[in-house]
Amino acid sequence: MAEKPGHSIISIQKNKRSFEYIRKNFILYLFLAPAVMLVFIFNYIPMYGVTIAFKDFSPIKGILNSEWVGFEHFTSFLQSPNFQQIFMNTLKLSTFGLLLGFPVPVILALMLNQVRRAGIKKHIQLIIYAPHFISVVVIVGMLFIFLSPAGPLNNILSVFTDKPISFMSDPNYFRTIFIVSGIWQGAGFASIIYLAALSNTDPQLHDAATLDGASLLQRIWHIDIQVLKPTMTVLFILAVGGIMSVGFEKAYLLQTDMNLPTSEIIDTYVYKRGLQAGDWSFGAAVGLFNSVISLALLVIVNYVVKKLNGETLY
Amino acid sequence: MNDLMVGLDKKKRKKIGQAKNRLINNSKSDRVILFINKMLLIFVVIIVLVPLLYVLIGSFLQPQVLLTQGISFNPEHWSLDGYRRIFNDGSILRGFLNSIMYATGFTVISVGVTILAGYSLSVDGLVGKKFFMVFFLFTMFFNGGMVPTYLLVKELGLINTVWAVILPGAIGVWNIILARTYFKGLPNELKEAARIDGASDVKIFLSIILPLSKPIIFVLALYAFIGQWNSYFQAMIYLEDRSLYPLQLILREILIQNEVQPGMIADQLARAEMQRVAEMIKYSAIVVSSLPLLIMYPFFQKYFEKGVMVGSLK
User: Fold this and answer.
1) Residue A197 lies in a domain
2) Which of A3, A80, A242, B184 would suit a FRET pair with B127, their CA atoms being 20 to 30 Å apart?
3) Is A107 exposed, middle or buried (0-12, 13-18, 19+ CB in 10 A)?
4) Contact between residue A254 and residue A178 where contact means Cβ atoms under 8 Å apart
5) CB A253 within 8 A of CB A137
């Protein structure tokens, strides 16, 4: 595999030139240094640390000296009685959330786009964006207030039912609460991006369609939605890639001892087993399992969408 | 330049609006649809506003009225008791100050590092650019997960310090890409001209690039600050000392764990009364913690929208 002499001279010259460049522009590399360092420390070192998923990690022995156990933690997670439940909880929560939540910002944007008076439009936007700025702790706190057995929702419902419903401790309500409150909080703000896309629509399209006798709904369907398609595609891919890591902070806060049968998802399980119970290796293994599935999903969806209509994320 | 675009857009939109008006007025069914659209939007606005107003009004009511009758507009039922109790207890105020410190520190570090790295990566012909891009981008697809990251932070001795809250999440690779895209969009001639005049890289960056980058810096800072302000999870896993708790963790105790802060019930109350007071405090705590952002955000609405837009650039 000896290189031809000519090649090596060129590559030496190239190296020399690169070296010269770096020496001259070292300040640019100095600018990069803090970011590279932080990413290396807080993103790459944990990637090495994830090897504890294949070991029996003990803090005393450290990562290097802990014994290898292969896939033991993975098999014990996969065979544990609650694996199926936790896995399905995660999948259901995010899939239903995506299916129900994804169209709402699109519809909101289409609706707002029909408001012709700029002032009114601006005010509506101002109001429906607001919940986005409320913290997840406060949102969950509000849910506990509104949905408590003596809370306002039960007061209203008492007209129809004789017993108050304890929404927060009934596993049947967890997903609905999680998803609906998510839409309430995020749909308005998420519509911004679609509104922006709509404002770039060529007005001649609408004029021409109207002259041809197209109704408003026909124009929305054949023009506006077509305009939104590329944006929707990209956001959909991103959302599917994130399907395994959805809303952990909120799910954890919404958990009560009673609703765990539906509210325990992989991330909260990792937190409890890995950090709270100190089952480091097991937690790392479950987390790794989750990351690998996310990555696979992202790649698959991107591939499928690319095949279907040529839009792609990367 | 941006303002010019906005102006143009408005003009264009107005024109479109007029054209639409002209044409749409012909069709009766379209007008029906527009009317339904208006009604639906009003409905959306009500759905967003009602929970917020309920909490706001509730926070000014006497606890027994709030819990037995719900919202009341009778001035005799008004009370500032909840607010008085909150300010009697130091924890909310201390959480507030801690949160300001964390959010400010996080913003300065995160935006500073991001801008520097983004600038370097935007320079044409930077040797090793490809390597650095792959180095950063890879972390968007794979990460070590919660447990290895926690072990690392622990190993570094950062547990129970400000740095554990600030540093691990400080670098968003996505933000570096955004900054880079922005810098790339700045006209190259400016840099060239300065270079011919003999300005150094640092000088060019400080005196030409930075002043032109105020919008992106502002957008990044806004998102960083609010993101940190509203988050609780890092603080929850890394902080042990209550005096270090940010506002969101204090709120979690009050709203979700139903823990009554001793300073808030300094007067000896009967058990039933105490429960009512605890419920009342929740309302005031939500208002005190969420109002600042909700009042301030309309002034920055333009920048939030800009932020989403910049983010939508591929």
Assistant:
1) yes
2) A3
3) middle
4) yes
5) yes
- Any idea which residue has 């105790």 for tokens? B253
Contact A141 B251 (CB under 8 A): yes
State whether A135 and B171 contact (CB < 8 Å).
no
Q: How far is A127 from chain B (nearest CA, A)?
A: 7
| Residue B76 pLDDT grade (very low, low, confident, very high; cuts 50, 70, 90) | confident
pLDDT of residue B20 exceeding 60: no
Under an 8 A CB cutoff, do B48 and A27 touch? no
pLDDT score of B2 more than 50: no
Would you say how long chain B is, in residues? Answer: 314
Our CA-based measurement puts residue B261 at a distance from the nearest CA of chain A, in whole angstroms, of: 16
C-beta atoms of A52 and B114 within 8 A = no
CATH (domain of A135): 1.10.3720.10
Domains of chain B: 89-259 (1.10.3720.10)
Question: CA A106 to CA A255: how far, in whole Å?
Answer: 30
Q: Which residues of chain B have a CB within 8 Å of the CB of A230?
A: none
Task: At A11, list the tokens.
Answer: 């590559």
ipTM of the complex in this document = 0.86
Distance between B278 CA and the closest CA of chain A, angstroms: 11
How buried is residue B102: exposed, middle or buried, by Cβ count under 10 Å (0-12/13-18/19+)? Answer: buried
CB contact under 8 A, B116 and A199: no
Question: pLDDT category, A253, cuts 50, 70, 90?
Answer: very high
Domain count, chain A: 1
Contact A243, A214 (CB under 8 A): no
Within 13 A of B312's CA, how many CA atoms are on the CB side?
20
Question: Which residues span the domain enclosing A107?
Answer: 72-309
**Tally of CA atoms within 13 A in the half-sphere of B147 that contains its CB:** 35
Q: Do B297 and A271 touch (CB under 8 A)?
A: no
Residue A286 lies in a domain: yes
- Residue B259 forms contact with A (CB below 8 Å): no
Q: Residue A13 falls within a domain, yes or no?
A: no
A293 to chain B, minimum CA–CA distance in Å? 11
